[in-house]
Write a structure and sequence with these properties.
Largest sheet: none
Number of domains: 1
Order of helices and strands: HHHH
Structural class: mainly alpha
Number of helices: 4
Number of strands: 0
Oligomer: single chain
Strand content: under 5%
Shape: elongated
Radius of gyration: 18 Å
Length: 116
């Protein structure tokens, strides 16, 4: 969660700028999907999340391909795409950790006798 907080902080620090409506739509849908995943008790992502993530990844690839060679500066759009995809990766890790915890708890429940 600390790492997610870090990436959200990076998003908040981006200065405001104009963005194409289609790109804004993809970003908005990703933010909503991240919110839904964070509110899910098991951090599960639905198929819609994967679709939006792939759209965002495609936008990032296009931005990187259009960058001037040898440029060390990233556009605000590129930073937003990167930060959202980083949060997505962390949510996948949270989901994986949760599944391992559930599996471990089930193992403990089966193997340890319950005293009444």
């Amino acid at each position: 969660m600390r790492q997610i907080h870090y990436h959200v902080g990076n998003l908040v620090s981006i200065p405001s700028f104009e963005i194409h409506e289609e790109k804004e739509s993809v970003i908005g849908r990703m933010v909503k999907s991240i919110k839904m995943t964070l509110h899910h008790p098991h951090f599960e992502m639905d198929d819609h999340h994967d679709i939006v993530m792939n759209e965002l990844l495609e936008l990032l690839k296009n931005e990187v391909d259009q960058r001037e060679p040898l440029s060390h500066c990233f556009s605000p759009e590129t930073i937003i795409y990167y930060e959202l995809l980083s949060i997505h990766d962390l949510l996948e890790e949270l989901n994986h950790i949760h599944r391992l915890e559930v599996r471990h708890q089930r193992f403990l429940d089966k193997s340890l006798p319950v005293k009444v």
